[in-house]
Amino acid sequence: QRNSLAAILKTLLQKYDRLFDTSFPYSMGWHAKPANHESGEHWQLHAHFYPPLLRSATIKKFMVGYEMMAEPQRDITAESAAQWLRDI
């Protein structure tokens, strides 16, 4: 599982880099079972992966107003973005 996760992350990050032919910054955070939780059967290790907010290799997307307090506005749909990455 560890090797598979590393391979998946490597593939994804390389695709992000090739999307605009530039190195993409990103943030990733891990969640595990709380240390003081008595019953951990329903907990599962998982990660939150936040891709870069770039419009192109030279234009950064700046979050403003409602985006900072709620949900970032994307210029394309999630489905379109996924297809872009599959095609790279």
Written account of the structure:
The structure is a single chain. With 88 residues, the protein is of the alpha+beta class. The protein has one domain: HIT-like (HIT family, subunit A, 2-Layer Sandwich), CATH 3.30.428. The chain is 36% helix and 11% strand. The chain contains 3 helices and 2 strands; from the N terminus they run H-E-E-H-H. A two-stranded antiparallel sheet has the order 1-2. The model has no long low-confidence stretch (mean pLDDT 79).
Task: Throw out a few tags for this protein.
alpha+beta; two-stranded antiparallel sheet; 3 helices; HIT family, subunit A; 36% helix
Radius of gyration: 16 Å
Instruction: State the CATH topology.
Output: HIT family, subunit A
The total number of structural domains is 1
Biggest β-sheet description: 2 strands, antiparallel
Relevant CATH superfamily: HIT-like
Order of helices and strands: HEEHH
Query: From the 3D coordinates, which CATH architecture would you assign?
Result: 2-Layer Sandwich
User: Kindly state the mean pLDDT as a whole number?
Assistant: 79
* Strand arrangement, major sheet: 1-2
Termini, distance in Å? Answer: 25 Å
Measured as a percent range, the helix fraction is 25-40%
- By oligomeric state, this entry counts as single chain
Unreliable spans: none
Structural class: alpha+beta
**Count of distinct strands:** 2
Shape: extended
CATH class: Alpha Beta
- Secondary structure tally, helices: 3
How big a fraction of the residues is strand? 5-15%
